[in-house]
Amino acid sequence: MIELRNLSKSFMTADGQVDALRHINLTIRDGDIYGIIGMSGAGKSTLVRCINMLERPTEGSVLLDGQDLGSLGKKEIRDIRRSVTMIFQSFNLLMQRTCLQNVMFPLKLARVPRAEAEARARELLQTVGLPDKANSYPAQLSGGQQQRVAIARALATNPKVLLCDEATSALDPKTTHSILELIREINRKMGITVIVITHQMSVVQEICNRVAILENGEVVEEGDVSEVFSRPKAAATRSLVFPEMADSVSLLTEGGQHVRVIFNGADTSREPLIAKMAVDCGILASILGASTRTIGGKAYGYMILDIPGGPDELAAAVKYLSEKENITVQVETEYGRKEGE
To answer: 338 pairs with which residues across the strands?
Structure first.
């Protein structure tokens, strides 16, 4: 288990102090595929570098199975990095060495006998689907193949934790999917905890079971991916999960009555919800913006409605919509802020 306790990191620049991380508290359980997501500058890369002590926190602690990594010396940290390995967006392979030699490299540093290291490296190339590329050089491989070699290298020392820092950002969607499937299979078969650093919510949705949202160096939301996806609370989360909704801000009329209807697996195959509300309640709601996905006949996402009339019509609309299964309704006093916030 990885615990981040009150973790902060500051840097001094020519313009003064920059607080890259502020009071981060997270618990990542053994076997999780844990996503850490945020826009550029949110602090994601600094956070992942603190987890493996490439950056020492200014304040707070990183605990691995109860051990405070900040209390360890340089040699002990080197040993820890065999248990907490990393793959990168740019692959970071040694271009003058073959794929086999790349995978063997951390074993060589660990002074593993050559025959044993080679056998282990060949086994890992088989695991990542590249047994025939042992004698190829990175430049002869596609981007997806290079990342597979990088994954094999990261697995060479039998790590407990695999850190993925924007590992699929340089890849096309099809290759991204295949790499994420590989990571999921490694997590399932080997029990390795995976931490995914990304700015792409689609990556988190596909592979992660839990997620933390970073904004300006702080965790603004954290929880199960299904919950965060269906009921985003923080403005930063909403802009990541449903970026299209930002376009609806200009459509919100001053003094209007707006509700946000959140779909978390609602059945959309039987009846058109908004049209049926008009028939049943006489409420002709206008759809100001929507971002929904239908998966297996179930709706996920949300829409913003303008409800005509006065408080009675608003209350009737909220009551009607709230009675539907797998739907949550929030009254909006302005975009991104619920009533009472």
So the answer is: 332
Identify any residues that bridge with 212 across adjacent strands, giving them in sequence order: 36, 222
Distance CA 241, CA 109 (A): 42
Percentages helix, strand, coil for the chain (3-state, rounded to 5) are 40, 30, 30
Taking Cα atoms as reference points, which of 193, 188, 173 lies closest to residue 2? 193
Dist. CA 23–CA 319, nearest whole Å: 40
Largest pairwise CA distance in the chain? 79
Distance, in Å, from the CA atom of 78 to the CA atom of 10, rounded to the nearest integer, reads 23
- Residue 90's φ and ψ, nearest 5 degrees, are -95, 10
Q: Distance between CA atoms of 246 and 39, rounded to whole angstroms?
A: 15
Tally the C-alpha atoms within 13 A of residue 325's C-alpha that lie toward its C-beta: 7
* C-alpha span between 305 and 318 (Å, rounded): 11
SS3 (DSSP) at 119: helix
pTM: 0.77
Beta carbons of 114 and 107 less than 8 angstroms apart: no
Mean pLDDT of the 264-273 span: 70
Q: What is the mean pLDDT of residues 201-230?
A: 88
pLDDT for position 335: 41
Opening angle at CA 8, ends 7 and 10, nearest 5: 160
**Per-residue model confidence as pLDDT tens digits over 134-164:** 999 999 999 999 999 999 999 999 999 999 9
Secondary structure of residue 80 in the 3-state scheme: helix
pLDDT-above-70 percentage for the chain: 90
Q: Is the pLDDT of residue 197 over 50?
A: yes
Picking from 7, 55, 4, the residue whose alpha carbon sits closest to that of residue 29 is 4
